[in-house]
Model the fold of this input.
Amino acid sequence: MKTLGLTLLAATLYAQAPTPAPQKQAPAPMTFFVTSVGPGNGANLGGLAGADAHCQKLAAAAGAGDRTWRAYLSTSAVDGKPAVNARERIGKGPWHNAKGAVIARDLGNLHGDTLDEARTGNLVTKNNALTEKGDRVNGVGDTPNTHDILTGSQPDGRAFSDAADHTCKNWTSNSDGVAQLGHSDRNGGGISWNSTHPSRGCSQENLVATGGAGLFYCFAGN
Done:
C-alpha cells in the first residue's frame, strides 16, 4: 500500500508540474538583402569586384560579414572576356532575408525555371526584399520611389547576348549606356524582380529619375 501511495503521489505531482515552454528557434542567418545605399556614383560600381566589395561592406556592418557576398549582376562579353551571368554568382540557396524569411529555395525557384516554379514564384516582394538593416525598400506610392534595382540581366538571370549595352559598360560607367533594372516591389508597370525595364542612363541623376537610387541585390553563396 505504501508503494502504491508513493506512486500515486508521484503521478499527481507530475500531472501538476508546469509544461516546459517550447524553445524558440533562432531565425536563419541572412543570406540575401537589397543594398540600403548604392556606392553613390551612379551605375559605376567599380565593376563586379567593386559591387561585391560593397555587398561585403554593408553585410559586415550588419553583423553578417562572416559570409562571402556577391552582387546579383550580369556583365556582357567584351574584349575577349565571356559574359557573366548573375545567377551563376550567388550559390545554390536557400536564401533568407534579414528577418530570416525564405526568399527562394534554390535557383529554379528564384528564377521560375520550370512552369511549376514560375507559378509558385519566389518571395522577392516589397515586404520581403529587405535591406541588410531589415528595412523595406521604397516602392510605388512611397516618396522617393527607389524600387529600381540594377541587375543587367534577363528574367532567367543570364546576361543579354545582343550588342546593346544593358550593364552601363559592365558597371564602370556613370554617363554613357543604360542598365537593365528589376523592381524590388514587383509593382509599377512591371512585376519582374530582376528584369523589368532599362534605366534612362547611368548617372546617379538618371537612376533617380527612372525610379531608383543605384541599389542592387546581394546574395551569400554556399
Remarks:
- The radius of gyration is 23 Å.
- The chain has six helices and eight strands.
- Confidence is low (pLDDT under 50) at residues 4-15.
- The chain has one domain: 28-220.
